[in-house]
Amino acid sequence: MTAAGNPPRRVLVAMSGGVDSSTAAALLVRAGWDVTGVHLKLAGTPAAEQVQGRGCCTLADADDARRVAATLGVPFYVWDLTDRFRQAVVEDFAAEYERGRTPNPCARCNERVKVAGLLERALALGFDALATGHYARVAGGRLLRAADAAKDQSYVLYMLGPAQLAHLELPLGGLAKPEVRALAAELGLRTAAKPESHDVCFIPDGDTAGWLERRLGRRPGTVVDPAGRVLGHHRGAYRYTVGQRRGLGVSAPGPRYVLSIQPATGTVVVGDREQLAIRVVVLERTSSTDGAGLRRGRAAVRLRAHGSEMGCEVRPGPGGRVRLELDEPVGAVAPGQAGVLYDGDVVLGGGTVTATA
User: Are 169 and 232 members of one domain?
Assistant: First the structure.
């Protein structure tokens, strides 16, 4: 019971089996929350194909999460969400590449499964809040950058609105990664020194192009310059992304970069680096963290998860489309990625890049 005689608030903690979510759970226990841990089975990769350090829901990860929960003395469950994950993330991932885009599966997973989707389920089960190990902050009902700029993950949480942020706990938002590992070691958590996972969680061997080819089949096409001259051939336009330089399979004087992908004709257009530069980005499927929609005016935009930010003019249009006029040219902006808007540390919202100019 709390000092006021009220029971502690109930929080469901998403425990991936890594050091971040483990420490988030431990901090909430220490703060007096009534904690329940849940590990999500998402990718459904057969045990024989699982690779430790690649993905977030291997058998070893589930075991680590379970043992941390036991150390903390909190209830622990494993929820099988493979069907929902397959439909919302895996199918979307393949479809976006088939359309010539480069999706961000982490943002899509947070939107439909790991955060927004899990929070909806947590509230329906009577929990007061959901907690994750993401590096970001919630204050005054708004989403903010993490204190540790190098670990900031606000980019992949931009789609959360006020109703969701009101029930989201992010215990690591004010900490740096070394502090998190030190806390985990101090608390005796088995994940304290566990390496971070990398790559797309449902492609354990890291071969995205091979995974797409097995799923979509070979779709031969041509690699051309902006004038349409054929420079080479390929096995599938989905193997390329805007800004890509290596593995183009062309013979040309000087380096070439992918400028655009035309999936309908199977054409990949390559050119000089200078030809990548764009000044306008169009976002669709936009949302705002205050629930009022993205507004006209000045903002900073990040166009890649770990990219730098730049100033822009935000110009909302019909149907939720937003046009961003950048202060300076930027290259290698791939349709399908997220464009996230900031005002200082505050995340304003964002959307999916659908066009550039």
Answer: no
- Reading the block at residue 101, the tokens are 């885009």
| Residues 320 and 296 both lie in one domain | yes
> What is the spatial distance between Cα 258 and Cα 56, in angstroms, rounded to a whole number?
31
User: Which residue type, as a one-letter code, is found at position 173?
Assistant: G
pTM reported for the whole predicted model: 0.93
Residue 245 belongs to domain spanning: 218-275
Statement: residue 287 has pLDDT above 80:
yes
What is the share, in percent, of the chain residues with pLDDT greater than 70?
95
Active site members: 109, 201
Query: Which two three-digit tokens encode residue 304?
Result: 């890649």
All residues at 6 or more sequence positions from 102 whose CB lies less than 8 Å from its CB, including other chains: 96, 241, 242, 334, 335, 336, 337
Give the chain's domain count: 3
Q: Which CATH number does the domain housing residue 139 bear? A: 3.40.50.620
CATH label of the domain that carries residue 300: 2.40.30.10
- Considering the domain architecture, whether residues 98 and 77 belong to the same structural domain is answered as yes
Are 336 and 353 spatial neighbours (Cβ–Cβ below 8 Å)? yes
Identify the CA nearest to 284 among candidates 313, 318, 333, 322: 322
190-214 confidence digits (pLDDT tens)? 999 999 876 788 888 889 999 999 9
